[in-house]
Specification:
By secondary structure, this protein is of the alpha/beta class. 44% of the residues lie in helices and 17% in strands. The structure holds nicotinamide-adenine-dinucleotide and thymidine-5'-diphosphate.
């Protein structure tokens, strides 16, 4: 089995690569990543020399490059993590979100059609369902919830999902889609809530909480997400959507206070700042379908997972300090310049 993992130098993609190499040592894993600001080769350093792993620098928007790659490599499956993923950036500059998240996905599916594939899996998000009110805790997103997006990021992910469904219906492409809640864990880029707050708390800088901090997210430890995708690839039904999440809802303020408490830092570091435009109030996943059909259950509760995550950031300070200092970007410039292709 040869699997192409796009966006594998980012947070979830890299964790997925580690998971798959561990669970399926007989599989070949090829990581394709454009190494944008969010991609980090240092993350993949410890698997770079594995015989069944290969890293390729390349852009999913580049049709010629992608078609050449598919022709050469003969992939069995594609798992598409590659995306612009940060809501705040999508509010500042939406264009690249449409290019990568929608058009890039289309290029990959066109290559899948041309060269044949057993499965194209689209890694999507619960944000395509819009948001839920704060005062109705029983409401949750199911796979039947209508698509109603709030940010350019979620609109681009929803557009890609529709396109994936269209490729299934029109061209019979064997696709699956997963829509997961907010992930946290090792190797998350320190612009997202949890790693940002950990790094700021350690530096004893102000922790910027949007609005009143009452927005709610449903947190999933990244390894549980990886396991769910592995199950969908092997046991999921073509053409189906699977929600992934595990009833671990917390308000942003609760998350930030937990981090401060774990690090023994004062709550006076919390600073309420201007709210995010269009800020989604609450996300909550109903995981009944994946639980009943594929026997998936989250294994790590938030209270455990946040401790593990904080420990990881304490033990791996060099990884995120290099990002904050921008050193890793200089390194790529030296390694690749603007070239695409295999490093070895
Ligand atoms: P990330 O930003 O950490 O990683 C994205 C990766 O994609 C980076 O390595 C980047 O270099 C690469 N990339 C960006 N544009 C590219 C392009 N044009 N060609 C090739 N590679 C490109 O994101 P993440 O948090 O790991 O998210 C991965 C996927 O999971 C995304 O599709 C995201 O929408 C989805 N998702 C994320 C979460 C979450 O909480 N982080 C939750 C649900 C779904
Ligand atoms: P984020 O990690 O950007 O994920 P998403 O927007 O995809 O849910 O943000 C998580 C929540 O934390 C969201 O409600 C916005 C909030 N937030 C802050 O309050 N301050 C911050 O500095 C950031 C980055 C996020």
């Amino acid at each position: 089995m040869k699997i192409l993992v796009t966006g594998g130098a980012g947070f979830i993609g890299s964790n997925f690569i580690f998971y798959m190499l561990d669970q399926h040592p007989d599989y070949d894993i090829v990581c394709l990543d454009a190494l944008t600001y969010a991609g980090n080769l240092e993350t993949l350093e410890h698997v770079m020399d594995n015989d069944n792993f290969k890293f390729i620098k390349g852009d999913i928007r580049d049709r010629d490059f992608i078609f050449d790659l598919f022709k050469k490599e003969n992939f069995d499956m594609v798992v598409n993590f590659a995306a612009e993923s940060h809501v705040d950036r999508s509010i500042k500059d939406p264009g690249v979100f449409l290019e990568t998240n929608i058009l890039g996905t289309q290029v990959l599916m066109a290559a899948c059609r041309e060269y044949g594939i057993k499965r194209f899996h689209q890694v999507s998000t619960d944000e395509v369902y819009g948001d839920l009110p704060l005062d109705k805790p029983d409401l949750m997103f199911t796979e039947e919830t209508s698509i109603t997006t709030s940010s350019p990021y979620s609109a681009s992910k929803a557009s890609a999902d529709l396109l994936v469904e269209a490729y299934h219906r029109t061209f019979n492409l064997p696709v699956t889609i997963s829509r997961c809640s907010n992930n946290y864990g090792p190797y998350q880029f320190p612009e997202k809530l949890i790693p940002l707050m950990i790094s700021k708390a350690l530096a004893e800088e102000e922790l910027p909480v949007y609005g009143k901090g009452e927005n709610v997210r449903d947190w999933l430890y990244v390894k549980d997400h990886c396991e769910a995708i592995d199950l969908i690839l092997h046991k999921g039904q073509q053409g189906e959507v699977y929600n992934i999440g595990g009833h671990n809802e917390r308000s942003n303020l609760e998350v930030v206070k937990t981090i401060l408490n774990e690090l023994d830092k004062p709550e006076s570091l919390i600073t309420f700042v201007e709210d995010r435009a269009g800020h989604d109030l609450r996300y909550a996943i109903d995981p009944t379908k994946i639980s009943e059909e594929l026997d998936w259950e989250p294994t790590i509760l938030f209270d455990q997972g946040i401790k593990k995550t904080i420990k990881w950031y304490l033990d791996n300070e060099e990884w995120w300090q290099n990002i904050l200092s921008g050193e890793y970007q200089d390194y790529y410039q030296k390694m690749y310049g603007d070239k695409q292709g295999d490093k070895r």
